Amino acid sequence: MHEELKQIISQAMNTRFEFEQKLIQRAWEDENFKQELLSNPKAVFARESGEEIPTNLEIEVIQETANKVYLVLPTNPASSESEEELSEADLETVAGGNCILGSIMRPQCIAFTLLRNANGLT
User: Fold this and answer.
1) DSSP 58-105
2) Which of 14, 32, 111, 118 has the fewest Cβ atoms within 10 angstroms?
3) One-character DSSP codes across 67-80
């Protein structure tokens, strides 16, 4: 995978982490918000990010307990990428496409587009 692409994905993951941390903090401080996040995460993500969430994208929120911890392994965008140069079509996909949480930071749009395409989402 190209170093520039790795850097973009890393930046996007950091942006996603920061956004999720804000949601977690608010859920800890506001029980009503927490319940809404647990029951309708897609609507909360859309409202809090200011972005439209693709209809085929599922968002699940799970709450850890004192006796259970979750580790989420994101999709590896490198698993469907080759070490070759990107084609014009691939470059166009990276430059355009749908955007989630895009108002937070542009690289998030790029990474989500890559992840979406790697997972066959439209």
Assistant:
1) -------BTTB--------GGGS--SSPPPHHHHHHHHSS--SSTTT-
2) 32
3) TB--------GGGS
Range(s) of the domain holding residue 72: 3-118
* pLDDT above 70 for 44: yes
What's the pLDDT at 107? 41
Domain tally for the chain?
1
Strand partners, 68: 65
Beta strands per DSSP E along the chain: none
Q: Are 27 and 37 in contact (CB under 8 A)?
A: yes
Mean confidence (pLDDT) of the chain:
75
Percentage with pLDDT > 70 across the chain: 61
Q: Are 23 and 37 in contact (CB under 8 A)?
A: yes
Tokens of 57: 């994208």
Q: Which residue has the higher pLDDT, 119 or 52?
A: 52
- Encoded tokens for 116: 């979406």
Q: What is the pTM of this model?
A: 0.59
Q: What is the token pair recorded at 64?
A: 């850890």
